[in-house]
Design a protein that fits this description.
The complex is a heterotrimer of chains A (about 100), B (about 180) and C (about 375). By secondary structure, chain A is mostly helical. Helices cover about 80% and strands about 0% of the residues of chain A. Chain A is elongated. Chain A starts with a helix and ends in a 13-residue tail after the last helix. The model of chain A has no long low-confidence stretch (mean pLDDT about 85). In chain B, about 80% of the residues lie in helices and about 0% in strands. In chain B, helix 1 packs antiparallel against helix 2 and helix 2 packs antiparallel against helix 3. The N and C termini of chain B lie far apart (about 75 Å). By secondary structure, chain C is mainly alpha-helical. Chain C contains 15 helices and 2 strands. In chain C, helix 4 runs antiparallel to helix 5. The model of chain C has no long low-confidence stretch (mean pLDDT about 85). Classes of the chains: A mainly alpha (about 100), B mainly alpha (about 180), C mainly alpha (about 375). Chains A and B meet through helix 1, helix 2 and helix 3 of A and helix 1, helix 2, helix 3, helix 4 and helix 6 of B.
């Protein structure tokens, strides 16, 4: 029988992968993708929780998370393009100045 | 038995894909593995009777968001990551250590405490009787969560405007002026 | 295991469903593999007809030329047995995966179309679409939105500027036109009140005046335009505009991989044609003969009724396939900015207004019915 623990362990692993990606990759696009990974780990927890508890609020939350993820990706990628235009790189090591 | 097999298959694929997303040097390959990840997650959702969320996951995440990522990767046409060694600073090691400790604590708590078996009214049969997963999710979304839903639509509108403003070329204004000047 | 035990296992309910699923998947697979050769033939003969020339008519069996029908078979054999050349700078793994992605998504969507009404096999109700879901509609959207990866990855992996330009164009185009496509089909979901394609066909009944095309004509027109854009077909075939991009995203592909792109393009066309027939033209319903009447006419043989429905669906889909060919040889190609402004500035607003009006009308009728 697959219990909620299994799903939680899997989600934890995904979240860990996402965290490591955000911390150690230097490409801004990779950082954004790792954030998507983390959001998905949370989604998995929500859906399995919704199944365990027998109510649909968790699934509705996933719907909202996907909405927010779409916005985040759109704005984030726009910023990546703007940064690339200005500095010619998307490496976080070279993007250390907050001034324009 | 089937449930276990489905979980095992999807879970191992998800684990492999998640690792490959952060390990591969090439951003496009990472994006491909991210798609695989999202697809397997959708399979897992479907095995949990959350059909609507599964379909939305593939439709929006895999079909739109990651395509956008890929589009930008190709637009910038970045080569693979040339760096051989990871350059890690002291604060990053600290954060990593804290993260791992946090996960260990969570894992320990998971092993110690059994999930409280609070079962709500909506079992799989109840949902089927009420008109299927999509219908019930729709009912919850448009009654209990109506205002958050409307707020989410405002958020999307704001994000669209923000993305256009940020990504717009800066010299477009001059070009417009020139075009206007020439009649 | 003895024979009696084997028979017992094979006749259990689960086993019947599993075997039925395998048979259905095989049938759909074989059906899809028949589409490209026939379409290739049609796409050579139809323009020949329009341009008053003969077209390929030589290849046949012995003395029977069969209007050149076997030309496609010869082409298929040639494509499969040709030597495969992989460009030196290509990203090998992605280059090999990309065509598979295309075929996979196209075939998977083909499995969600209802090819007939449910039939009973040994007392078990078997649906005539291999993947029968209550969110079948969303499933089709979801999987067909993955088709863009085949084109995108193909262009990127072949390390060629023309290919990359073609795939960038294709991905932007397919994402843009997915939105009007969805907007054109949601009114139908509102009208028929279901996401299950078979229930949608049942709700349309056998009489043409209750079909989707009569109830939502604007949706149909929008869908018709999006159909061409989603499959990258003329007049929206900018992804492979040969006058500027050589052959676009599949410039560097040859032999069996090129054939795979061919296959996925034609199967995608076939699936969208089937979807148009299912949603707007009553799917497997035989015109003017309701299913019950048909069943009693055929002496209660569900198999024959299902076959009749299948033939009806294929005939309706074949009409749309013909429209694809017809339009290709009639209209010139769009310019890219025209394509984008058509999608975003015209189709999307019209789709939104159409959805709003349809929803209001449906709500009004339902309210009136309640009082």
């Amino acid at each position: 029988m697959v219990s909620i623990d299994h799903y939680l362990v899997l989600a934890t692993f995904m979240f860990l992968c996402g965290t490591l990606g955000v911390l150690f990759r230097r490409n801004l696009l990779m950082v954004l993708m790792s954030i998507e990974l983390m959001l998905n780990a949370v989604n998995l927890v929500f859906v399995s929780g919704s199944r365990l508890l027998g109510n649909l609020d968790g699934q509705v939350m996933v719907f909202f998370i996907i909405t927010v993820a779409a916005c985040e990706a759109g704005v984030g990628l726009a910023m990546v393009i703007a940064l690339f235009r200005r500095y010619g790189t998307v490496d976080t090591n070279f993007l250390r100045v907050l001034r324009g | 038995m089937t449930q276990e097999l489905v979980f095992l298959a999807f879970a191992s694929l998800i684990a492999i894909c998640s690792m490959m997303v952060i390990l591969s040097r090439n951003a496009v390959v990472s994006a491909i593995f991210l798609v695989g990840d999202l697809f397997c997650l959708a399979g897992l959702y479907a095995s949990m009777e959350a059909h609507f969320v599964a379909a939305i996951q593939v439709l929006v995440y895999a079909g739109a968001i990651v395509v956008l990522f890929m589009f930008v990767i190709m637009l910038l046409n970045l080569g693979p990551d040339q760096r051989k060694h990871l350059e890690v600073s002291a604060p990053e090691i600290g954060v990593l250590g804290l993260t791992i400790v946090g996960f260990l604590v969570i894992g320990g708590l998971l092993l110690l405490g059994q999930p409280t078996g609070v079962t709500g009214p909506l079992t799989a049969e109840a949902i089927d009787n009420a008109g299927g997963n999509t219908y019930t999710v729709g009912m919850v979304l448009f009654t209990k969560y109506l205002w958050p839903f409307e707020l989410a639509s405002m958020l999307i509108l704001l994000a669209i405007i923000a993305a256009i403003v940020i990504a717009k070329k800066e010299h477009i204004k001059d070009g417009d002026k020139r075009r206007l000047a020439h009649g | 295991m003895g024979l009696t035990e084997l028979i017992e296992v094979l006749s259990s309910d689960t086993a019947i469903q599993v075997i039925a699923s395998i048979v259905k998947i095989l049938i759909v697979l074989v059906l899809c593999l028949q589409v490209p050769p026939l379409m290739v033939w049609a796409e050579r003969r139809a323009p020949a007809m329009m341009q008053r020339r003969k077209g390929p008519n030589r290849v046949g069996l012995f003395k029977f030329r069969l209007y050149g029908l076997l030309q496609s078979a010869a082409d298929a054999v040639k494509l499969i047995f040709k030597e495969e050349v992989v460009p030196r700078g290509a990203n090998k793994a992605v280059y090999h995966i990309a065509p598979i992605f295309g075929v996979f998504t196209a075939m998977m969507v083909a499995c969600a179309i209802p090819y007939g009404n449910d039939i009973s096999v040994f007392g078990q109700k078997v649906s005539l679409s291999p993947i029968h879901l209550d969110v079948g509609f969303l499933f089709i959207f979801a999987i067909s939105s993955l088709a863009v990866y085949a084109v995108t990855l193909a262009g990127w992996a072949s390390n060629n500027k023309y290919s990359l330009l073609g795939s960038l164009r294709a991905s932007a185009q397919m994402i843009s036109y997915e939105i009007p496509l969805g907007m054109s089909l949601i009114p139908l979901v509102v009208i028929f009140g279901t996401l299950d394609l078979n229930k949608m066909v049942l709700a349309q009944s056998a009489y043409p005046w209750s079909w989707g095309v009569v109830k939502a004509p604007i949706s149909f027109l929008l869908f018709l335009v999006c159909m061409f854009a989603e499959t990258n077909r003329a007049p929206f075939d900018l992804a492979e505009g040969e006058s500027e991009l050589v052959a676009g995203f599949h410039t560097e592909f040859n032999s069996a991989k090129f054939a795979a792109f061919f296959l996925s393009e034609y199967v995608a066309m076939f699936v969208l044609s089937c979807l148009a027939a299912t949603v707007f033209f009553g799917g497997w319903q035989t015109p003017f003969i309701p299913y019950e009447t048909l069943l009693s006419l055929l002496g209660g043989m569900e198999w024959l009724a299902a076959l009749a429905g299948f033939v009806c669906l294929i005939v309706k889909a074949a009409f749309f396939m013909w429209v694809y060919v017809w339009v290709r040889w009639t209209l010139p190609r769009f310019r890219y900015d025209q394509l984008m402004s058509l999608g975003w500035k015209f189709m999307l607003p019209v789709g939104l207004v159409n959805l709003l009006v349809t929803t209001l009308v449906v709500a009004f009728i339902e309210n009136a019915g309640r009082h």
